[in-house]
Amino acid sequence: MNTVQPLPTSRREFLKSTGRIAAASALAGVALPQVHAAGNETIQVALVGCGGRGGGAAQQALSVKNGPTKLVALADVFPDRLNGTFNSLKQRFASQVDVPKDRQFVGFDAYKQAMDCLKPGDIAIFATPPAFRWVHFTYAIAKGLNVFMEKPVTVDGPATRRMLKLAEEATAKNLKVGVGLMSRHSRALGELAKRVQDGEIGEILLMRGYRMHGPGGFTMPVRAGANELLYQVQRFHSFLWASGGIFSDYYIHIIDHLCWIKNAWPVKAQALGGRHYRQTRNGQTYVDQNLDVYAAEYTFADGSKFYFDGRCMAGCHDNFSSALHGSKGMAIGSRSGDCGPPSSIFKSQNPQRADLLWESKIPADERDPYQNEWNDLVDAIRNDKPYNEARRGAEASLVTSMGRMAAHTGQEVTFEDILNSDHEFAPDVDKLTADSPAPLVADATGKYPVPEPGIKTKREY
Fold first, then answer.
1. Which pTM was predicted?
2. DSSP class of residue 36?
3. What's the confidence (pLDDT) of residue 40?
């Protein structure tokens, strides 16, 4: 088991400590040379995790406006996913995809082989389930690689503490690290954050976030004779050890961008949740660990509230948006989706056209936040700018887990509670092989442990 070293145990000490890490990045930039600073060398890219997110990240990496970039290695535990992503990228970016069979790696140790194809200063993309994030990040830092990692970057307290120490190591090595919280690279949300922090809606009193849509993260019992570990990895949304479940994986974007706009992390959370429809229409029972409704109340140090509602049910009212209410008016963050523009500010508490004070207008070439985050990362590499989003990614992941833990235990959970929690969902994830038992074990009926609020109060299952 990889030992988790103690970190500051209070939110104030935590933020003070991690603030010092960010400040150190400027000094780190002086000490170490940047391989691609000249701007005319090809940056090589290795993709670890070839599912939909990985393929999307690789596409953006190959589309940066401050190239050239080239994909040189692929890694996954599923050959079909690797082949599908390779064929798709090769068809679209023929001259930039140089991944012969001997640089296509399959298995739980494939991440090492893929990163071994890179040289210091190149980029490793991590788009596997987040349980593996710290394992892959550790190897990248040792290799001197810049990193782009998908969110969330952690799913529990022990992994968060480990990730924060790795963020510090990356800064000390002057490595550039991007995290797939693309809302932070939405130019509309960026301008809204500045306006709100400048006081345009007054003191923030309340924030609201919603992600309510059809079923997601549900799964059927594993088939007899199937590899249960691979079954859980493939259906990672269904299992807390692999992804933090739908709460962490689905809700982190809106939680992150509203906290960014407020410029604060909440100090505690309480939450509700329930499992309503747990069977298919033909009577088969879903065996995942998710609840299908969540309602979380986050509280900030100044007493203001942030309410988040999540639902995965067919036939119900859908809402996927964010809003802020202040003493002088209100603002719309995302109109539809994780960061759907335009963002806007109103002089009243009603988002009606007659009260509109400002609406974002973004140039066409900066409207895609997914591409923006890659352009920003590569610009930092080319021009040797301090750039490490790992700490913020860990903080956002931790705050999201705080709300999830509150719902799953039925308790009020503080920032310190989740940061210092000793429940690590998959402590030996770095030792997994294809023959390993799965981190989560089903009972004799094929059902996995689920949250029991009020019964299991210190752990989520």
1. 0.91
2. T
3. 53
**How many Cβ atoms from other residues are within 10 Å of residue 159's Cβ?**
29
| pLDDT given for residue 75 in this prediction | 98
Backbone angles phi, psi at 183, to 5 degrees: -60, -30
Give residue 252's identity as a one-letter amino acid code: I
Helix (H) or strand (E) holding 260: helix 245-262
Identify residue 17 by its one-letter amino acid code: S
Average pLDDT, the chain: 92
Q: How far is CA 190 from CA 121, 344, 355, in A?
A: 28, 12, 22
Distance between CA atoms of residues 194 and 191, nearest Å: 5
DSSP string, 322-334: EEEEESS-EEES-
Q: Would you place residue 299 in the very low, low, confident or very high pLDDT band (cuts 50, 70, 90)?
A: very high
At residue 13, the pLDDT reads 53
C-alpha span between 31 and 41 (Å, rounded): 21
| DSSP code of residue 453 | T
68 preceded by cis ω (within 30°)?
A: yes
pLDDT in tens, 118-138: 999 999 999 999 999 999 999
**Of residues 445 and 332, which shows the higher confidence score?**
332
Confidence label for 214 from pLDDT (cuts 50, 70 and 90): very high
Nearest Cα residue to 46 out of 125, 148, 110, 133: 125
Helix H segments across 131-186? 133-143, 157-172
Q: Rounded distance, CA 367 to CA 372, Å?
A: 8
Q: Report the relative pairing of strands 330-332 and 319-326 from DSSP bridges.
A: antiparallel
Spatial CB neighbours of 269, under 8 Å, sequence gap ≥ 6: 296, 297, 298, 299, 402, 403, 405, 406, 412, 413
pLDDT band at 282 (very low <50, low <70, confident <90, very high): confident
Whether the CB-CB separation of 26 and 384 falls below 8 Å is answered with no
Burial class of 425 by CB neighbour count within 10 A (0 to 12, 13 to 18, 19+): buried
Helix-then-strand count for the chain, H and E: 13, 15
